[in-house]
């Protein structure tokens, strides 16, 4: 996975934060451990960050740090979703997922009123995929089932959702951590989603109300 | 459920479990996890599992194979912890060797602290010898160097003060016998306010940096101010 990196020094210059702040936010788990990428350079070891992600994250922290405590922020950014339970009504009201996907959930839930974070997350991710036009509704259903079934084992960990397709047959799976993928020729990598990113987005939707 | 106490006087084995008080006087081997309110060891304890307690006080020797979780942990003898330690207050009066990572609110005291992984805390105030394999990340770092060379791969935080010890008066009669030779070796030190003495480091980066006597620094990058002692060596300085 190629991503543009930014050195710690450049990051501090660009954002105007201090070393003390950066280390504090890391300690408070506002910045995930795996974004600190250590590389040897001619001046010794240097720390780099995935540029896009860290800049977005620091902007977000700077926006919010006056209104909310660092612990509240940490809860928001943590890859381990808090025990969020929404009612059906709230999910509809906040337009978290599109109507098609909402129907699936409604059928699954039956009379139950509460929607757990995991349920919501799996639908949210499938919804995003559907909206991107990369997958069909039928495939979406498969991904949804797979995600709901396997995600609890990975909860709180960093993972990616991978969707591959060969001659019209789609295969999806969850990958713990981040690793390089090498697939045979003729296989199309339909989607590769970094799950924590979506968790954050979803939390954001929920907390905004 | 009213929890039982576990008391071992002499020498015994235990399977572990949930207790109110655990006190070990003598020698004990515990084959499982312990969960308790207070745990005291006078003598020697070998715990094969994890220890979760409100307070842990070790006056002798303790080997713990698993995780340690506690609100306060006092090490007045020697502790050898294989797993990670999540302790709010770690009080050191002896020697603690941690093979995993340490997360704490405050780490204070004197003696020898070795952490193979990273060590994170709000306050770290130690006198003696400190070895940290990865990063020491704390809001405030106060180290008084005594006895021998300390090594820390990376220090990061808001305020970082490294001094050759003279802070703890109780140490003076001890240090009379050996000349003061304690130093700190680090690869990177990064903070907002940095004061260093007798420190060897490849790179020091900060807002306000003071390089005191006995330092050998490869590169100093500072933003607002740099003060350098005449007995310090700095190969290269850059203002950002």
Write up this protein.
The complex is a heterodimer of chains A (209) and B (240). Chain A has helices at residues 8-15, 19-27, 51-64, 70-77, 88-93, 99-109, 117-132, 137-154, 195-208, and strands at residues 5-7, 37-41, 44-50, 85-87, 114-116, 159-166, 169-176, 188-194. Helices cover 50% and strands 21% of the residues of chain A. Chain A contains nine helices and eight strands. Chain A folds into two domains: 5-77, Orthogonal Bundle (Multidrug-efflux Transporter Regulator, Chain: A, Domain 2); 85-208, no CATH class. Chain A is of the alpha+beta class and 209 residues long. The longest helix of chain A has 18 residues, at 137-154. In chain A, helix 7 crosses helix 9 (195-208). Chain B is mainly beta and 240 residues long. Chain B folds into two domains: 1-100, no CATH class; 119-240, no CATH class. Helix content of chain B is 2%, strand content 74%. Chain B contains one helix and 16 strands. Chain B has one helix at residues 172-175; strands at residues 4-14, 17-30, 34-47, 51-58, 61-64, 68-75, 78-81, 85-92, 95-98, 102-115, 119-145, 150-164, 184-196, 199-211, 216-228, 233-239. Chain B has an eight-stranded parallel β-barrel with strand order 3-4-6-8-10-9-7-5. Chain B is elongated. At the A-B interface, helix 1 and helix 2 of A face strand 11, strand 12, strand 13, strand 14 and strand 15 of B.
Give me some keywords for this one.
heterodimer; A: 209 residues; alpha+beta; Multidrug-efflux Transporter Regulator, Chain: A, Domain 2; 2 domains; three-stranded antiparallel β-sheet; 50% helix; B: 240 residues; mainly beta; eight-stranded parallel β-barrel; 16 strands
How far is the first residue's CA from the last residue's CA of chain B?
A: 62 Å
Structural class of chain A: alpha+beta
The strand line-up of the biggest sheet of chain A is: 1-3-2
Seen as an oligomer or otherwise, the chain set is: heterodimer
Biggest protein-protein contact in the assembly: A-B, 14 and 23 residues
Strand content of chain A: 15-25%
Q: Total number of helical segments of chain A?
A: 9
- Number of E-state strands of chain A: 8
Report the radius of gyration of chain A as a whole number of Å. 19 Å
Element pattern of chain B in H and E: EEEEEEEEEEEEHEEEE
Q: Please state how the strands of the largest beta sheet of chain B are arranged side by side.
A: 3-4-6-8-10-9-7-5
Structural class of chain B: mainly beta
Percentage of residues in DSSP E strands of chain B: over 45%
* Overall pLDDT metric of chain A: 81
Total helix count of chain B? 1
- Terminus-to-terminus distance of chain A: 34 Å
Pfam family, one (chain B): Bactofilin
Family (chain B): Belongs to the bactofilin family.
Protein name (chain B): Polymer-forming cytoskeletal protein
InterPro entries (chain B): BacA/B
